[in-house]
């Protein structure tokens, strides 16, 4: 387990900022105003990046590198080419700070959880002024975060779309906990 | 029987479904005052008909009359949540007969199980059964109300919630009534048959000519109907041995026959059947074997980090799931009767609002009761049901270290931790026996030890045959190592904690009481404390000549036939002092080990004679001076090889020797 390098931090924050926008700094700010306040830090462990409270990260240092399988919340992993691949497990980290959101109707929930893109017919609500190719968090109508993706069209454009047209490309959804458990977590 | 101080705190689990059943019955046009048990009562009486003929009828009769007066009672009490039950304080005879009644209730349970595989039926019965087992404790009921009063605000909502289920339940009930009627008829036939064949004394053991026949039939498949009748007959005899036995037959013969039949009927290995049989009375053992044939109800646990139980239940009901709160003892459990969707793939499941978890595995976490901002260790964590429950109890504060030695299982564990949103968890992959070494000083430790699984035979029937004597020696060995590691990992000076909970999903003595006893003996700095669980039977303080610590009655045992949960064992320790430094040293052989004498085994001989002999023996004896020279030479060679001057060294050594 080690802290991220400067370069890695930059790649990670760029990726997260796609979804959260400028409120990313709220994520890494100290939790409260007390002098020794805890804050969320990012740690690399067996190729995965974890967001974890500093106090927990400090305690986890006493566990040997090869014996430490996970701590806090897994965000994703760095690919061999140095890009960052964000996982569905990051959803609880980015959902509270998401800038653009999309709500889908009950009949669209299952298709989305099975890995489908969001089509216009399934949209219940949509953030205004959302540009094209912008990271976006997908919610069900009762405000349960389901996953995230990128918009295929801007809000204005998608109004003119026919009902079967894709509005948002899926990147990750809750269904991956079942479909893709083997790839989500590090263990050899 | 199993009534301790815990009764004053919480009381037994409520037969929760009763109100609904009464309501449903009214709908179905049945007499309302008769509780669900009523039809069974009738059946029982018919089944018991042959009994009055036997000699011990007087005592039986009084038992049955008190029983007959009983059925109305639980139903009346229930709506008032035990509050009024105090006024209906027990009459003396009830207490005296409690033992007998309990047994009979068990019998009813198993009859219900045997006759119908219906979930609703089973739950009602079992919870009633458990209620009756602590029936004599009504005088303590006053305090139980206080404990449950906090639940009452919820109960309205729960009623509303379950009202939505009523359609499903009433259909179940109809079906169940039909089945019961069929079972009644069958039983009538059977009892008639019995009276014809055996008259007063049932013939269970084979005569000599029967045995010959048996040998002939050895290779044929056993007649299950016959086996079952013989088992029930046999149990009847064992219950009232002095009156019902055949002349000249010993109890051992009957027991051997019963075990043989049980092995043939249920498919246990002989070793395991005997081991399990010895834990119970014959009747209870039969109930246990019978309960192992039916699956336990599906239970889900609400993840309080993401959802609350009421909303979750509503959401699932809308998806076509029939469910109900699991009991008053848990605020997060929901029992599922039937579901039109796969429970492991609903959007709520994927969003981490609940986890499928057996009711029994709530218990160790509730016993441990982790507080906020503590440091907690789960030594064998996979698949994460208990770990996430603890994280939820701590509201994601503090730290939970979840350890599992198996990497493949750890993957599922990490998946569940992330899905349920437990952010305060560190997952490690040590052998748990190493544990105080990488990290110690925990406030609480949960050890759900690997075990033989004799409590979960319903889930995994392979246990019936694949467990041998060796397993019951190896597993306790590991468990003992683990429990010492667990104790050593706890900080005795923790302000809020210092607790260890040991649990297994096994019912055998070797893996439970014996391990706890070992821990108490090896670590004088721990003591057993109250588990604060609402129900459960007390652990054995003595078993077949072995006597355990008297505080063993603070541990809790759970059986499938008495509570309709998996067989389980929970013990809670408190660490009151540091582990003494010598604790890890190997044990001395005997208890008074200090006085082990050193035995000189050299034969006693005359020394001078020996010298003479040595000089004259075939090897030419021993010459001290010559030996000295060789030693000196060897030393010099060694020094030269190391690049030192042997002469100087010789001088030095001579000097020093001077």
Automatic annotation (TrEMBL), chain A:
Subcellular location(s) per record: Nucleus, Nucleolus
Domain PUA residues, every copy: 100-175
Record keywords: Nucleus, Ribosome biogenesis, RNA-binding
Keyword Cell wall biogenesis/degradation on entry: no
InterPro entries: NIP7_N, Nip7_N_euk, PUA, PUA-like_sf, PUA_sf, Ribosomal_synth_fac_NIP7, UPF0113_PUA
Matches recorded under Pfam families: pre-PUA_NIP7 (PF17833), UPF0113 (PF03657)
Primary localization class, coarse: nucleus
Gene3D superfamilies: 3.10.450.220, PUA domain (2.30.130.10)
Similarity-based family: Belongs to the NIP7 family.
Known partners and oligomeric status: Interacts with pre-ribosome complex.
Protein function: Required for proper 27S pre-rRNA processing and 60S ribosome subunit assembly.
Protein name: 60S ribosome subunit biogenesis protein NIP7
Organism listed in the record: Bionectria ochroleuca (Gliocladium roseum)
Higher taxonomy: Eukaryota, Fungi, Dikarya, Ascomycota, Pezizomycotina
UniProtKB/TrEMBL annotation, chain B:
Pfam families per UniProt: Methyltr_RsmB-F
Composition bias, Low complexity: 53-72
Domain of life: Eukaryota
Keyword vocabulary terms for this entry: Methyltransferase, Nucleus, Ribosome biogenesis, RNA-binding, S-adenosyl-L-methionine, Transferase
Positions that bind S-adenosyl-L-methionine: 380-386, 404, 431, 448
Domain SAM-dependent MTase RsmB/NOP-type residue range list: 288-576
Predominant location category: nucleus
Composition bias type Basic residues, residue spans: 649-658
Active-site feature positions: 505 (nucleophile)
The family this protein is said to belong to: Belongs to the class I-like SAM-binding methyltransferase superfamily. RsmB/NOP family.
Protein's UniProt name: SAM-dependent MTase RsmB/NOP-type domain-containing protein
Source organism of the structure: Bionectria ochroleuca (Gliocladium roseum)
Taxonomic lineage from the root: Eukaryota, Fungi, Dikarya, Ascomycota, Pezizomycotina
């Amino acid at each position: 387990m080690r802290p991220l390098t400067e370069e890695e931090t930059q790649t990670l924050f760029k990726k997260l900022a796609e979804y959260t926008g400028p409120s990313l700094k709220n994520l890494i700010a100290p939790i409260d105003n007390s002098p020794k306040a805890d804050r969320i830090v990012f740690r690399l462990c067996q190729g995965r990046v974890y967001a974890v409270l500093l106090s927990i990260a400090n305690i986890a240092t006493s566990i040997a590198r090869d014996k430490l399988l996970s701590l806090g919340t897994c965000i994703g992993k760095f690919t061999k080419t140095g890009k960052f691949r964000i996982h569905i497990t990051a959803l609880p980290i980015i959902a509270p700070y998401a800038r653009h959101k999309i709500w889908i109707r009950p009949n669209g929930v299952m298709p989305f959880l099975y890995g489908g893109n969001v089509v216009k017919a399934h949209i219940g609500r949509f953030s205004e002024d959302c540009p094209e190719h912008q990271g976006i968090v997908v919610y069900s109508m009762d405000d349960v975060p389901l996953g995230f993706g990128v918009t295929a069209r801007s809000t204005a454009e998608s109004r003119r779309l026919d009902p079967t047209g894709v509005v948002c490309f899926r990147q990750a959804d809750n269904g991956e906990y079942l479909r893709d458990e083997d790839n989500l977590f590090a263990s050899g | 029987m199993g009534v301790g101080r815990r009764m004053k705190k919480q009381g037994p689990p409520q037969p929760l479904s009763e109100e609904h059943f009464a309501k449903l019955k009214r709908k179905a046009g049945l007499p309302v005052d008769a509780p669900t048990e009523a039809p069974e009562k009738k059946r029982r009486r018919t089944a018991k008909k042959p009994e009055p003929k036997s000699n011990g009828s007087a005592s039986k009769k009084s038992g049955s009359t008190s029983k007959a007066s009983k059925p109305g009672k639980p139903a009346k009490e229930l709506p008032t949540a035990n509050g009024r039950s105090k006024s209906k304080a027990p009459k003396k005879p009830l207490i005296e007969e409690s033992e007998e009644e309990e047994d009979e209730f068990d019998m009813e349970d198993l009859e219900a199980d045997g006759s119908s595989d219906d979930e609703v039926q089973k739950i009602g019965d079992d919870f009633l059964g458990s209620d009756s087992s602590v029936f004599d404790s009504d005088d303590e009921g006053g305090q139980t109300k206080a404990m449950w009063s906090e639940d009452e605000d919820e109960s309205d909502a729960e009623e509303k919630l379950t009202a939505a289920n009523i359609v499903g339940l009433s259909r179940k009930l109809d079906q169940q009534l039909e089945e019961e009627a069929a079972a009644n008829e069958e039983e009538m036939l059977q009892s008639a048959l019995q009276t014809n064949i055996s008259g007063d004394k049932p013939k269970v053991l084979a005569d000599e000519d029967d045995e010959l026949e048996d040998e002939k039939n050895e290779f044929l498949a056993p007649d299950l109907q016959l086996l079952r009748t013989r088992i029930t007959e046999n149990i009847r005899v064992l219950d009232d041995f002095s009156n019902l036995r055949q002349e000249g037959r010993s109890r051992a013969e009957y027991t051997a026959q019963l075990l043989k039949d049980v092995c043939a009927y249920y498919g246990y290995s002989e070793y395991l059947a005997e081991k399990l049989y010895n834990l119970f009375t014959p009747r209870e053992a039969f109930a246990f074997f019978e309960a192992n044939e039916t699956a336990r109800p599906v239970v889900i646990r609400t993840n309080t980090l993401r959802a609350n139980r009421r909303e979750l239940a509503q959401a699932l009901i809308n998806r076509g799931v029939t469910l109900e709160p699991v009991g008053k003892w848990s605020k997060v459990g929901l029992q599922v009767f039937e579901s039109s969707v796969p429970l492991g793939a609903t959007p709520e499941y994927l969003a981490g609002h609940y986890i499928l978890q057996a009711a029994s595995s709530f218990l160790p976490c509730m016993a441990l009761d982790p507080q906020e901002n503590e440091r907690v260790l789960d030594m064998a964590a996979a698949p994460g049901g208990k770990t996430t429950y603890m994280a939820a109890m701590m509201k994601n504060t503090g730290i939970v270290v979840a350890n599992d030695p198996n990497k493949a299982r750890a993957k599922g564990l990490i998946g569940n931790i992330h899905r349920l949103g437990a952010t305060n968890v560190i997952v490690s992959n040590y052998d748990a026996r190493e544990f105080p070494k990488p990290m110690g000083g925990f406030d609480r430790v949960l050890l759900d030890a690997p075990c033989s699984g004799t409590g979960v035979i319903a889930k995994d029937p392979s246990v019936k045959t694949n467990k041998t004597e060796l397993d019951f020696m190896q597993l306790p060995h590991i468990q003992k190592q683990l429990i010492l590691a667990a104790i050593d990992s706890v900080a005795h000076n923790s302000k809020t904690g210092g607790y260890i909970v040991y649990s297994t999903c096994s019912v055998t003595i070797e893996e439970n009481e014996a391990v706890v006893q070992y821990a108490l003996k090896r670590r004088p700095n721990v003591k057993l404390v109250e588990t604060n669980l609402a129900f459960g039977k007390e652990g054995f303080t003595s078993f077949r000549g072995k006597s355990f610590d008297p505080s063993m009655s603070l541990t809790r045992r759970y059986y499938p036939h008495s509570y309709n949960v998996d067989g389980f064992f929970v013990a809670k320790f408190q660490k009151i002092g540091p582990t003494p430094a010598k604790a890890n040293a190997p044990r001395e052989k005997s208890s008074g080990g200090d006085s082990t004498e050193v035995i000189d085994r050299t034969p006693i001989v005359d020394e001078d004679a020996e010298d003479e002999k040595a000089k004259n023996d075939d090897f030419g004896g021993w010459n001290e001076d010559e030996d000295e020279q060789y030693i000196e030479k060897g030393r010099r060679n060694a020094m030269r090889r190391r690049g030192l001057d042997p002469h100087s060294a010789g001088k030095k050594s001579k000097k020093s020797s001077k």
